[in-house]
């Protein structure tokens, strides 16, 4: 007969259980908690006052460091480099921001630690393990312990610590707000405007010479930029990305849109070169249809009908620049674009 038919034979006997219990016991006696030793702050109020002033000093120093952090954004320009031993040549702005913010956070932590080690109760309490769901008696005891701990922490009595801690904690988050400045200056109306203005001449992008009406032949595509914008300028790329212009001369009787005709000069129409899909430069022109094609995603615009979109993913027509002729016979802008240039600006407001 197998042992599986008599499972009782495999069970441990009472003697084995007792023996196993003895083996499971720890050979070392439970030493318990050592006797509580009072700190000097517990028995000497003058020492407690000194600790209170130290904690308040650390919290106050944190507040001053936070103010210095904010002031550093105004005091130091981005490109200022200084020599600081032993770090060498470093950015004055980055060094001051790191130093002041680190000091602010360290002082809050050091103040909290010093408060806990010298003034809060350090008496150890034993809490036996219990079921997950606490009984009403345990809940009442926990609440009583919490109130006792709050009382022993002297949070309500030590007003100097409490108020200085609130000040430090209230000022530190301002550092995160000021960090938003690193995202760059506010755009203001820069996304809505370009450097085109009334009286600004149209300059050929290839020859860098002002354009006359006679320079634009019927069926030709000419690229232009505003007068005064040079390639060696520091902000050239930023400005040309909005002000790039393309000129096409169309027979006036072939222009379908009335406003386009009014804003043109002898059939010369000026439109933004920046595609309204993702901002690619438009460079392909079809003479017979007066269509321009963006080479990136094949958005197609009809320059004889207000540059409306006739194909592709672009969602808006190209902005038109109103042009005229100066007294010297040069083509000039009569203002800026009447709408923002570039892709997806309308959805951003």
UniProtKB/TrEMBL annotation:
Residues 1-37 are annotated as: Disordered. Keywords: 2Fe-2S, Cell membrane, Disulfide bond, Electron transport, Iron, Iron-sulfur, Membrane, Metal-binding, Oxidoreductase, Respiratory chain, Transmembrane, Transmembrane helix, Transport. One of its GO terms (molecular function) is oxidoreductase activity, acting on paired donors, with incorporation or reduction of molecular oxygen. Its main location: membrane. Residues 242-332 form the Rieske domain. Gene3D superfamilies: Rieske [2Fe-2S] iron-sulphur domain. The keyword Transport applies. Coiled coil: none annotated. It is found in: Cell membrane. Pfam families: QcrA_N, Rieske. Belongs to the Rieske iron-sulfur protein family. The cytochrome bc1 complex is composed of a cytochrome b (QcrB), the Rieske iron-sulfur protein (QcrA) and a diheme cytochrome c (QcrC) subunit. This is Cytochrome bc1 complex Rieske iron-sulfur subunit. It comes from Streptomyces tsukubensis. The lineage of its organism: Bacteria, Bacillati, Actinomycetota, Actinomycetes, Kitasatosporales.
């Amino acid at each position: 007969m197998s042992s599986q038919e008599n499972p009782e034979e495999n069970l441990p006997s009472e003697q084995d259980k007792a023996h196993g219990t003895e083996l499971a016991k720890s050979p070392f006696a439970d030493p318990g908690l050592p006797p509580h030793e009072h700190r000097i702050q517990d028995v000497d109020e003058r020492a407690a006052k000194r600790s209170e002033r130290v904690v308040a000093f650390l919290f106050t120093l944190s507040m001053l460091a936070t103010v210095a952090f904010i002031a550093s954004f105004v005091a130091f320009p981005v490109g200022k480099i200084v020599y600081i031993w032993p770090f060498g040549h470093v950015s004055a702005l980055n060094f001051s921001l790191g130093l002041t913010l680190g000091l602010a956070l360290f002082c809050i932590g050091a103040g909290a630690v010093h408060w806990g080690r010298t003034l809060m109760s350090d008496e150890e309490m034993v809490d036996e393990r219990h079921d997950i769901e606490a009984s009403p008696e345990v809940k009442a005891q926990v609440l009583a312990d919490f109130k006792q701990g709050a009382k022993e922490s002297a949070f309500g009595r030590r007003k100097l610590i409490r108020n200085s801690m609130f000040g430090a904690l209230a000022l530190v988050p301002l550092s995160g707000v000021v960090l938003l400045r690193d995202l760059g200056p506010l755009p203001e109306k820069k996304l809505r405007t370009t450097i085109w203005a009334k009286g600004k001449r149209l300059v050929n992008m290839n020859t860098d010479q002002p354009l006359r009406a006679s320079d634009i032949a019927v069926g030709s595509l000419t690229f232009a930029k505003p007068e005064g914008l040079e390639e060696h300028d520091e902000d050239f790329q930023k400005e040309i990305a909005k002000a790039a212009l393309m000129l096409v001369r169309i027979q006036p009787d072939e222009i379908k849109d009335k406003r386009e005709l009014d804003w043109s000069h002898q059939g010369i129409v000026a439109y933004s070169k920046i595609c309204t899909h993702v901002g690619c430069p438009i460079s392909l022109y079809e003479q017979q249809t007066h269509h321009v094609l963006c080479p990136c995603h094949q958005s197609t615009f009809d320059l004889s009908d207000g540059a409306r979109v006739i194909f592709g993913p672009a969602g808006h027509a190209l902005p038109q620049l109103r042009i005229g002729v100066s007294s010297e016979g040069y083509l000039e802008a009569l203002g800026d674009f009447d709408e923002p240039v570039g892709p997806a600006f309308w959805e951003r407001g």
